Structure formats: structure tokens, C-alpha cells
Amino acid sequence: MTIIIENPYEKFGPEWEPLGPSDRFRQLLRDEGIGQVKAWKIVCDEKEWWTPERIEVRDFTRELFTPLMSLQLAEIIDFHRTANHRVARYRTADNEVKKCLLNPWTIIRGIRGYTLEHADAFAKAQNIPLDSLDRMAEVALLALRHILQGERFDKNRNYRQYAGDTYVLLKTVKTEFRYILGADGVKESPGAFELAIVDLKDTNRVTTVDVPKERPGMTPRWVSQEGITEIRYAKAEEAIAARSHSEFTGTEFTAYSPPPTLSPKQRDAYLAAFRDPMVILDAPPGYGKTRTIAEIVKTCEALRIPVAVGTFMGRAATRVSKELISLDVNVNKMKYKPNTLHSLLRINLDADDGIGMKIDNSRPGIFIIDEASMVSTTLFGLVVNLIPGDWNIVVMGDSQQLPPIDAGSPFIDLVNGSNLDIITLDKCFRTDQPDIQVALTNIRERGVPDSTDNFRIYKAKREDAITKVMAIIRETARDLECSPLDLLITAPQNGVSKNRASYLTGLVTTNELNRELKKELNPVGWINSGRKWWVPILGDRVLAVKSNKGDVSANAAHNNGSIQRAFNGEMGTIVEAELNGPVIVQWDGNPIPAVYTQEEAFSDERILNLGYAVSVHKVQGAEAIGAVFIADGNSWYGLLTNSLTYTACSRGKRRVVVISLKSDKNRDGFGGGILNSDNKRRTLLPFYLNGQIT
Questions:
Q1: What is the pTM for the complete model shown?
Q2: Where are any strands of DSSP class E within 338-454?
């Protein structure tokens, strides 16, 4: 157990005196500089702290708990003995009230480090049965935390790693609740779970959000949601396992002068990468993060400083490699080629031993985490622990773009909650159109921009939405003198699952857009019969995805031996295809074509999908001459948010087009998306970095 020691002199002034055994214990640790065991023995032996009545309390707790916890428990027990009621109580499984020395489950939140496991040990020592209704509330809360943090039982009652969430279905919590009771050998009494939830609500330990059934974009899964209040500060001790800032030793390298082509803020980030143990770079899209990375890597390669670049999406790794090649860096000779964090560090969260591969610590170097805004708590903790302590870490991202899919938002915590210096780039390189820059600034500040020449906003009716979208795409391509294939066309959702079909009515999805775009732009190979409606043909735009079945990740699905054919979310064009032969894809930014079999390209388990239109989550880090975003107000409410809208609109260099569809409840798709805030899940990372938690 790690003991958090506050400085009482700073809190109460120089005349501070210890108020009880636990304060005296802290005083000895701080003023005398002695160890925990010796300090505990001194407190226990000092008569002024222990009257004869307290000896039994001391002996009862000292064998069960760590020193500070024992002293705090002793004080609580003594309080109960001296208070008017003099005794504590607990409820049996039949809701009968019985007396006890101390109800071990009512003080879990009162003592740091005191958990359900400790409470159960205390209960056994008092002969309190574990089917007590007071315990049920703590088990329900533990079940909720398991699901929120992604560690829970599967159907075979084995612990597995899952994606965390912010809200969960009560039925899911109840299932996990029963699994935990079963693992403890405890029989669930009738109504125990329902009473437990009531207790948690009454003590403000969980909050309930009731969403009307008729609200567009919602499904039955979201009608009754249970969220834990402290998920904003997610209990990340185990998941993040990140070193505090004071433990970063870092290495100051002698670097070349920053290239004159970099902006002043880019130069600041460049120099900080060689100087500071940890650098946080927060910048909007198109403001030169990739170029800054490339210049840092180029200098490292020239000075023979080990360097590694890990990204969340494979597309970003490809863009970094392309930028390095433009700077005459031989990417193939790099020890650590730009790659996704999972591939670079061999992290597999689905495997039991998915800890990954540590970076070589024989020499200090620089590790760059790109697209950090999409990195979850669990992944961030694993990555930081795999980086040697004498390596500098550069964390780059955009706190306004899409948050992680899994639980936690560590990059946002670093930007908003730590005492580290944050470098913010302030010069846009992606577009030189002032009206696009003004519109994006408005969206970041949750304001709805006006329609201008280069940032165009169209309104469409749902009944003719597809026709209007196709006409606008043709018009945009004609204005920009490019092919429609050169445009980046996005929508919030790929499709609608069966259980959401009655809620997401008339939704314009990327699947529907792909069908229409395919028919118009490359109609050869069109088969509209059953499930096999698409045959890959020369000229088709495609998207790299994971298999529709199985647990293989997208990146692993596209790995052919030692060749990584594509990364998840990459887009490309089919340059050769035969009906019964191989399909060859030229992925964007990769000069080497990739070969796929018919089964890989066209089957129920295909790993190639049409990519004429893609979901917004697939385009973070991409750019195009023009971007077209269909902001459908009927999209799932928790998906069409400010960050998704901003990410979609920040892809265009010369033209951004928004097609707004009102929801069935008359909510404007574009304006509603801008005003809909993300439910960003905080972690304890800032407290680690600020030294408030050790």
C-alpha cells in the first residue's frame, strides 16, 4: 500500500498538533523520518494515544491491515464506542438489523486503500456473513467499475479485458454482480441487487440518467443508464500505471538548430523534445504536427539518437513515413519504423500476456506518441511503462478532436489538468482559406459558423437526401476541378444495427452512400442481389478493415507474414482485379501495392470494404482537396458530437461542404452536433504527474 502523506504544517500552520493516532503516525513518518513499522509501534506504545479500552481495538486491527489503515479503523471503532449509539449495525440477507463492533462495508470510501477485500476480512473476523445487504451495495459498485474500466467476467466466469465505457445497462451490471457473488461463494438473496442500487443512489455514489424512449438516435440499451460519479476521475492506478513526472529522469541531447522552415512554436516543440523529459504538444489539425515529428526524427537519425514514433491509427504512421521520405530519411533503415503503438510495442490487449515489448534501454532516446487524443487510459499506461525511464517522451494530439473509444482521456487530462508546460501550435498549414479557418475556430468554440464560399452549408430534406448529396458532390468536384474520388466524404455512422433500426429512421449512412457512389462513379461489377452486392473491380476506392467475424484485429488481418499490407482505416484504390483471381490495392501513401485473395477481398469475412465514403472515426489524420460531411441529426446522439463534427470539417484544404439533415424531432444535424459536448472521461493522471498521488 502506498500511503499519501499530507503536510499538516502547511494545512494548519506551525502550531499544528496531531489530533489522533493516525495523525501522530504521519507526524513520525515526516518529522522523524522513520519507517512505517517503527512509527506504528511507537504510536501503539505511547500511552497518551491508547487507553486500556483501546487496546482491544488495536490488537483486533493490527493483524488484519496495514499500519495507517489499522490506526484509522481504530479511531472509527473508538468513535462508535464513545458515541451515543455506542454500537454499529449491519443488515442480514433478510433485512434484519444486528449489532457489530463495526460495519466494515460502510467505511470503504472513508479510508484510502480500504477495499471490499479488506472489508470482507474484517467481516470474517467479526463473524458477519458476507450475504449482508450492506455488502451488496459495494459488490454492485465493484461490478459497475469492472465494466467501466474494462476488466470483468466473461460468460465462462473468467476475467478478460474489454473496452471500458461511461454508461452501462443495469442488466449488464446485474450479470457482473452475480458473477462476483458466485466467485465469492455467496448466494444472492431476493431483491439484493435492487436494494444495492437504491443504496448507491441514496449515497450519491452512482447517478442515473433516464433518456426518453422516443428520443431520436437512442436505443433500448440507453434508456436506463447507470454511471459512477467518480468516473470523471477514473480509478486509474492500475490501468494507467504511469510514472509521475518526478520519476522521469529524461536525457538532454545536443540537437542541431531547429530548421528555419518551422514556425516559432514548432521550433519550441522541436527543442523541447531534446531537452525535456516529457513534452505535451496540443494543436489543431493541419498545424504541422507531422512535420514537427519528421524534423525531430531526422535530427535523431543524423545524431544516432534512438527514436521511435507510435501512432494510434495506421494512416498517421503512413503519413509520418511519407513526410520522412520527403526529408530524405531512409525509413527502411530506422530501428523503429513509424508504426501503430500496438504494432510497434507488440501490444495485444486481447491476449493474456498482452504487456508488449519494451523499448531497448541500452541508450537513451526519444519516443513520440502521435494522435494521443485517441489513446485510452489502459493503452497509455502500457505504452509509458514500456518506454525506458531515461527516454524523453513527446505526446502529440488535439484535445478538441475525437476522444478514445475505450475508457479514459489521458491526453485531455495532460492538457487540462497537469502542471506541465503545454506547447500549442498556432499556424495553419493545411488550408490558406481564411473563411475555413474562421469556421473551424467557431466550431471549436461551440459556435455555428456561417456559410461562405469555401465553407458551404447546405440544408437537405430527408426524403431526397441522397439525391441532394450526390448533386453537391458533383458540383464540388466540378468547382475544384478534380475527380469526386479526390474528395473525402464522411458521415457519422457506417450503418444501423437491427436493434437500432426503429430508432435511427431514414439515417444516411456511409454504407448507403457507398452504394450510390459506387453506382455512379464506377458502376462495373455492380451486383445488387442478396448480401453479395459488391464485386471488387478496377478503380474502386476501398477501406482496410478487420474481418467481419472473429477476434483478429484489423492490423493483424492485413499482416501477410512479415509484410504489413495496410493499417486499420487506410484507404486505397484497386489497381487490378479478376473475378476469380487476386485483388491488388494501391494504398494511399504506400508505393508498394498489396495483394489480396478473393476470400480476403470479397466474402462474409472480407477485410476490404468500399471506401468512397467513410465514417469520421476513420479519417482523423487524413486530408483532401475537399471534404464533404453529411451531418445527419438522426445519428446516434452520443456519436454526433462537437469533436466528431470538428474532426470531419477540418479535413478539407480548399473546400469544406456540410450537408445538414434535421432529425425526426426537428434538431438541426450540423448545429446540434456542434453544441453536443463529448462525455470525456477523466483519469487520475494529472494527480500522478503533479505529485499529488504517489
A1: 0.67
A2: 339-340, 366-369, 392-397, 422-424
